[in-house]
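does this look right to u?? 3-isopropylmalic acid version
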Amino acid sequence: MNLKIAVLPGDGIGPEVVLQAKKALYAVGVVYDHEFVFEDALIGAVAIDKTGNPLPEQTLNLCLNTDAVIFGAVGEPKYDNNPDSKSRPVQGLLKLRQALGLYANIRPIKPYNDLLDLSPLKRKIIENTDFVIFRELSGGSYFSEKKLNEEGTVASDLCEYSEEEIARITHLAFKAALKRRKKVTLVDKASILETSRLWRKVVTEVSANYPDVVLDFLFVDNAAMQIIINPKQFDVVLTENLFGDILSDEASVITGSIGLLPSASYGNSNALFEPIHGSHSQAKGKNIANPIASILSAAMLLEHFGLHAESQKVYEAVQKAIELNVVTVDLNPYSKFGTNEVGDFISNYILSKDDLLYFNNDNVYIGQSTIV
Ligand code: IPM
Ligand code: MN
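got this back:
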């Protein structure tokens, strides 16, 4: 298969982790005979620095004309902590999600057995947890009307949803449930919010097309508690944009580190793959960021294109790294391995190399297949 992939490393630890995802994909290409052509583009603070725009037109055009996008992270204190700053790096990502029509963000939550004791939650509560969050990504308070009065003393964020916006992600969630344990939990606040009541109505209607799937409802405050006290009850969690953002960070606690969690975002004709973590600027350039979330996002990319054996290989390589403790310091404070070494190990495992800890990074860029 030939795939053209836009790579948007962004800010903070984004470039370091994305490089490891590229290495893993490059290795998959070599082993399974696929050609993945990467093209890098600017987004976030680095884009503001160079062009004044967090999502330069060139970047958007590239993303619109590639098969998939790999995204790192955006965010930089010099813009984020400055209320007078006209552009914020995060606008680059939000505009991109909107422009690509990425309405469904999928976040799997499944802890590794070897890491269960890393979670502050008890082993018996979290082991065998396996659920996936379907977060609506292009509507709600993120994208509805925002207001600030002239004095700057009163502000509001509207939260708007249409039936169509709810129905399209609901279909995806039910289709996913059919391939899993056949349960969808809609998380909302229908006792208070009009939008939540519309979600319940539309989701109930859509559910009639999937008689084999059980649908239940949970208020978001209760859901936040249930994720911690009984996460095994969930199969597919369906929810609106802001609730999904909050609950997925909370759910990452089950896995022991947010640095492990990938995500995939789908629209009608575009797909973007990104870790759920942010840019973590303090860790930038220190070779300590966990690359696994980014590498697993690449595995989700492979799965999206029907490359199942290939994505399985990436999962297997990650599993092996964790099993052998070739991990970054978030997973093992005494680890001597950094971002790059974990990435090397995973790529070389995919390549079945004997020497699993060294990989020639330059080749990823020049597109040659020589690995040393
Ligand atoms: C995420 C992030 C983003 C979000 C930010 C960076 C805009 O937190 O992908 O979860 O809020 O959606
Ligand atoms: Mn988030």
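The longest strand covers residues 2-10. idk if thats expected tbh
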